[in-house]
Design goal:
There is one protein chain. By secondary structure, the protein is of the alpha/beta class. It has 14 helices and 14 strands. A 7-stranded mixed β-sheet has the order 2-8-7-6-5-3-4, sandwiched between helices. Helix 6 (82-93) packs parallel to helix 7 (109-117). The mean pLDDT is 94.
Length: 369
C-alpha cells in the first residue's frame, strides 16, 4: 500500500482548528449533535464494554435496512465509519493487476485508496456544462477485461447531484453484463430534502455494494459508525474477514448511540431537512443575485454544491482562499480537494446557521469583487 495524505484531510477545518473559523462553509454535514441530545446518561450505565457482534449489533443492522425492503440485516456489515467501509471494499476487490472505473470529482477515499493499492484507474470526469451528469456510455467504454469495480456516489459529493433511477438501473445492468461490481457511495441518502427517500441501490442486485453512515445527515461524525450492504453472501463473508483483520468489531458505545439515532430518525430528520431547505433558499437567492461573479448547478440532494467562479474574472484563486480564511474567518472546500481547478469549490450549506451562511456568502462576494 502506497499511502499519501489527501489535501481534503490535511487542509480540513479540524486540522486548521475550528476555533480559527467563524463561518464554516467547508463542512459536508449538518451541525454536530451532543450525546445528551439523543442519549440520556443513564442509558450508558449498563453497557457491557465487551467485544460486539463482528457484523455489527443485530438491532442496529435491522434499523439500517428498515427502509429498504430488498435488504436483510445479515446483508449489512457495520463498520467504524463509511471511510472504513470504502477501504474494506477497495482492498477486498482491487489488487495491482486489477482495474477500476471511477467518476470524478469524487470523495478522496474513493480515489486515493485504489491509488495506494496500485491498480489501474480510469476516470470518467463529470462536466459542469452538463450538470455533472453521469455518462453511462463513457463508463461502458472505459471498462476492460480486468475491470473489477465501477465507483459512483449518489447523491454526489461534491456537487449534490442526485442521479435518476434510470441512470442507476443502467449502471446496474452494465455491472451485471460485464461481471463488475458497482459501488454506490450513498453517504448523503438521508439528506434527500427535496424528494422521497429511495431504498439502497444494493437492494436491486447482487452486483451492487451500497455504503452509508451517520456522519452527514445525523450530525454524528464523532461516533465513527457507517456500513456497507450487499446481497452477495460470499462477498459479504470476505468483507467480514477484512473487517475482523482491521478492527475485529466496533465500539459498543458508538453502536449504542448509532442505534438510538436510527430509532429516532423520524424525529431527527424532519428538523434537519427543514433547516437545509431554509438554507438552500438563502443559497439560491444569493446565486441568483451574483451571476456575474459565480455560477452553479443547484444540488438535488445533500448539503453541498460545487459552484464555479466566473473564469472571465481572472481571479487568483489561491489568494481568494487565503484571503477568505485569514481576513474573513470563512472556509470553503477548494477544487483541488477533489482534483479539480480551484475556480471550483465545495460550498456546504447544512452545517452553518442561517445567519452564518448569509455572512459567509457575503464574505465570499467580498473576496470576488
Amino acid at each position: 500500500m502506497r499511502y499519501q495524505r489527501m489535501p481534503i484531510e490535511a487542509e480540513s477545518p479540524e486540522e486548521k482548528g475550528y476555533e480559527t473559523i467563524k463561518y464554516n462553509l467547508a463542512e459536508s454535514s449538518v451541525r454536530d449533535l451532543r450525546v445528551s441530545d439523543i442519549l440520556p446518561p443513564t442509558d450508558l450505565a449498563d453497557l457491557v464494554l465487551a467485544y460486539t457482534h463482528h457484523r455489527g449489533d443485530p438491532a442496529l443492522r435491522e434499523a439500517v435496512v428498515s427502509d429498504s425492503p430488498g435488504l436483510k440485516p445479515e446483508q449489512v456489515l457495520v463498520c467504524p465509519s463509511a471511510a472504513t467501509a470504502l477501504f474494506i471494499i477497495s482492498t477486498t476487490l482491487l489488487a495491482p493487476a486489477d482495474h477500476l472505473v471511477v467518476i470524478r470529482p469524487n470523495y478522496s477515499t474513493n480515489l486515493e485508496t485504489p491509488r495506494a493499492i496500485g491498480c489501474d484507474i480510469s476516470f470518467v470526469d463529470l462536466q459542469f456544462a452538463t450538470g455533472f451528469a453521469i455518462d453511462v456510455a463513457a463508463i461502458r467504454q472505459a471498462i476492460r477485461p480486468n475491470t473489477r469495480l465501477i465507483s459512483v456516489t449518489n447523491p454526489h459529493n461534491p456537487t449534490g447531484t442526485l442521479y435518476s433511477e434510470q441512470i442507476l438501473n443502467e449502471l446496474i445492468i452494465l455491472a451485471e453484463e460485464t461481471g463488475c461490481y458497482l459501488l454506490v457511495d450513498e453517504t448523503y441518502r438521508d439528506l434527500n430534502f427535496q424528494s422521497t427517500l429511495q431504498p439502497y441501490v444494493a437492494s436491486q442486485s447482487e452486483r451492487v455494494i451500497s455504503v452509508c453512515s451517520l456522519s452527514k445527515a445525523f450530525g454524528a461524525p464523532g461516533i465513527r459508525i457507517g456500513w456497507l450492504a450487499c446481497r452477495n453472501a460470499k462477498l459479504m463473508e470476505t468483507f467480514l474477514a477484512a473487517k475482523e483483520q482491521i478492527v475485529i468489531c466496533n465500539s459498543v458505545l458508538d453502536e449504542a448511540v448509532a442505534l438510538r439515532l436510527l430509532q429516532r430518525r423520524h424525529e431527527i430528520l424532519p428538523a434537519v431537512h427543514a433547516h437545509i431547505r431554509a438554507n438552500f433558499a438563502i443559497l439560491s437567492d444569493w446565486f441568483a443575485a451574483n451571476t456575474d461573479l459565480i455560477d452553479w448547478n443547484p444540488p438535488g440532494a445533500g448539503v453541498v454544491c460545487f459552484p464555479r467562479v466566473n473564469p472571465a474574472l481572472r481571479i487568483d484563486m489561491t489568494s481568494f482562499h487565503t484571503r477568505l480564511y485569514h481576513d474573513y474567518q470563512t472556509m470553503v472546500g477548494p477544487g483541488h480537494w477533489f482534483e479539480q481547478p480551484d475556480e471550483f469549490f465545495r460550498l456546504g450549506f447544512g452545517y452553518p446557521t442561517s445567519d452564518e451562511l448569509r455572512q459567509g456568502l457575503a464574505n465570499i462576494r467580498a473576496c470576488l469583487v
